[in-house]
Structures are given as C-alpha cells and as structure tokens.
Amino acid sequence: MLNEAVETEILPEAGAEPERRVRDRGATERAILAAAKGLLAEEGFQNFGINAVARRAGCDKQLIYRYYGGLDGLVEAIGADLGTWVKDRIPEDAGGMFMLTYGDLMERLALLLLDALRSDPLMRRIVAWEVSENTEQVRRLSEARSKALALWLDRMRGSLAPPKGVDAAAVNAVVIAAIQHLVLAGAAGGQCAGMSLKTSKDWEKAATALKRLVRGVYG
Amino acid sequence: MLNEAVETEILPEAGAEPERRVRDRGATERAILAAAKGLLAEEGFQNFGINAVARRAGCDKQLIYRYYGGLDGLVEAIGADLGTWVKDRIPEDAGGMFMLTYGDLMERLALLLLDALRSDPLMRRIVAWEVSENTEQVRRLSEARSKALALWLDRMRGSLAPPKGVDAAAVNAVVIAAIQHLVLAGAAGGQCAGMSLKTSKDWEKAATALKRLVRGVYG
DNA sequence: CCCCGCTGTCACCAATCGGTGAGTATCTGG
DNA sequence: CCAGATACTCACCGATTGGTGACAGCGGGG
After folding, report:
1. What residue numbers bound the domain in which B161 lies?
2. A26/C7 CA-to-C1' distance in Å
3. Numbers of helices and strands, H then E, in chain A
4. Which residues are CB-neighbours of A189 under 8 A, at least 6 positions away?
5. Which of A184, A210, A217 sits opposite B131 (nearest CB)?
6. Lowest-confidence range among A24-38, A72-86, A114-128, B194-208?
7. The domain boundary residue, chosen from B48, B81, B114
8. Are A39 and A91 members of one domain?
9. Chosen domain end from B59, B81, B103
10. What is the pLDDT of residues A39-55, one digit of tens each?
11. Matching PROSITE patterns, A to Z (chains A, B) (predicted)?
C-alpha cells in the first residue's frame, strides 16, 4: 500500500571506526521501548509490527523477542509506561480547585482533557486502536489507559461530590466520549460531523460547545 | 499477527458437476461489492485487502481490478452505496415532528442516531476507520458518510430552526461525536471511561445521560 | 588465562501481501 | 460453424511479514 519505506540511515562512518554499538542491555531495552512508542504515535497501529519497531530501534528483532517476549510483551510495557501519564498531567494549581462547584470542576476537567489528548499523539493512537480492534494486546493497553484516566480524574476531583439526581458517572462518560472522538476526528480528518477542527478558532468553538453541554447539566 | 486464516470451503462437489459458476458480470460485481461490505463490517479494516475480498467473493482478485479498478475503486463503490443509508433510516413518522421544539427534535435525533449506529456494523467500522487513518480511501468513504449523515439530519430536522444564542452546529457536532465514540467503544471493548456498555440497561443509562446533556442545552 | 554467558547479528523459513500477464472457457453475432 | 468478444482462472512476481536457529564478539568470574 504505502511503499517507499525510508532507508534507515545508520550506515557506519565511512572512514572512522564503524560507530560500534555499546553492549548495554538497559539502553537497548529503552531504545526499543522508545522506538515502539514513537512508531505507534507517529505511524499508528496499522504498520505497528516487530520488523518496524526493530528497524526504528536500529537493532535486530530477535532482541525484542528476548527482552520483551515479542510484540505482546512490548505492548504491555507501553501500557505500564502509561501509568506515568498521570504525573505529567496534574497541574500544580490542582489545590486551587477545592472551592469550586462540581460544574466548575467538570468544565475545567473537560477542557484539560481535551487539550491533554490533543497534544498527546501516542494517547490518541491508543484510543483509536481501542475502538478499532479487540485483541488481547489492545485490551491490555486499554485497561492501562483506562486506569490512568480514572486515576487522573480522581486526583483532580479531590473530595468534591457530584450533585444528586444525575448519574454523574454516565454523564461524564458521555462527555469524555465526546472529547475523545472530537480529538480523534480532528487529528485524523480535520473535522467532525460537519464542524471543522483545524484552526485554534475551530477548537475554541468546540470547547465552547462542550462547556455549554457540561454547564447545561451541572449548572 | 492474527494467523489461522480460515480455509475457504468452496471446494467443488466431489462427485457431481463442480457447481459451475454462471457467467454473469453483474452478479459477480454485486458479489464482490457484497463481499467487500461484509468483510469490512465483520472483520474491520485491518484485514481488508484485495486477496481477502476476492477470497470471500469466491472469485479471482483480477476481477476486482477489472470491474472496480482495484481496492480504491471498490471502496469508492462502497461509499456510493452509503448514499442509500439515508433512505432506510428515515422513520415514517418523521412528519409527526413538525410541532416539536428544537430540544425535542435533537433529543430524538440523538437517540435515533445512537440506535442506528449501534445496529449498523459496517457504518461503525467506517467511523472507526475514519479516526484511525487518513488515506485517500478513507477520505472518500468519510466524505460519503458525512454527506449521508448531513442529508439524514437535514431530512429529519425539516424546517425547524435552532434557538438563537447557541452555536447549534457545534453543539450538535459534539453530541454526534459523543454518540459515535460511545457506540465504537461499546462495540469494541464494551465500555467507555469506566461506564459499561454491554447490556441494554447499560445503554439506557448512556441514552439517559445523553438526553440530559441535550436537554441541558436546548431545554 | 580460558571458558562461559550475555549481547547482538545474520540468514533463512513459510506465509501472505498487492499486482500483472497470459491463458482458458463460454457466449454471441455474422 | 466459426471468429471474436467477454467472463473468468491460473501461475507467477517481488516485497514484506512474523518467527527461529545458528553464530560472532565481548566481558567477567573461576
């Protein structure tokens, strides 16, 4: 389909010593993991395979089998890595939210999640993967992502209780669904249901609509 | 990745005449198109290729090149077929909606779209494809689906005007995004953001939350 | 010092992929 | 009845895939 695979350019220096690889298992493992994450983020799950990862990592695929037990283990390692996502995404002013109403909080969280997803290609690719396949690999990744997201929401929510009379869990899930799909559609095709999602002005419109929906429920 | 391709079982009848295929180009073309749609709906876009379609259609892949000009043309034909989607999805009681408020209408449309998508595996796969890739193939399909959806919404809306003061287009796009992601996530993994999406009771909860969001904006 | 284990490389496998050229079978009009 | 168009099949191509077994080079502990 898409041909023209770029020739890897790790040819040894013509004259000097051939850039001997240091024998460092840890570094190699990290290189493989980084290659896998980068490949997934940049190319998507379509061309995500042993050969591609090894090519990008600049090592033999055999090492992936040895160190991670194959692609499955590698994907699992990516999932484990996703746990660190939370730490990077908790703004320092989280303490300042204690006095907000639940509506304020959810509006804020919605916009934060929107931006976070929009600026995280790896996470986007994983979400897209989740809704496209249902293999064991994807399930593991999905679980890790789900946990990270839940933890993040929990940390951000603090001790604020949702209002009575509404199924906040369901409403929030629907809001999150909207956010995820908007980001995916925007990144993939630049639009969603007729609404353009390219310029930052487009995204402001989307964010406004999102706010309106959240405010409509939580006041 | 996923191996164990099922052996096609179209071996000729052992004793009798070998189930001679009638030479009927029209029928073959239809068989190919049906095979493509069925394959896409059941297996997803991952293993969607010339060989797989030809295998399922029970003919040689050469015919796909001849009749459709390759996979691209075949995908385009699927897109053209999507235009018929609208006709099947307009309930006969559409006339009864003229007197509704915009909020009533959008709530209704949201639930209708939710059910329609939920019961249409092909459309689901296409939506998933749209957010996963950005090839020419997908763009064509996406455009066709977008048109069909817009046409459907237009037909359903009739002459009802949206309320002033809200960016109805943006709000509706967000609602549609939520619907699409809910359906995709439910079909793929049975849950979304912690909300289970398996039983019909689960879906009722989701629908209720959706209604609440729509009502919150449009009253 | 030498040997063994660890790290990394290479060659090869069967299977499948998209794509093509050439051939066979059937039907039809003269 | 024959010729040519049409419908269809088959065999093959190079490339790429996931996966494995054998081997080379270096380093540290006996």
Report:
1. 85-218
2. 11
3. 10, 2
4. B130, B131, B134, B138, B139, B142
5. A184
6. A72-86
7. B81
8. no
9. B81
10. 999 999 999 999 999 99
11. HTH_TETR_2
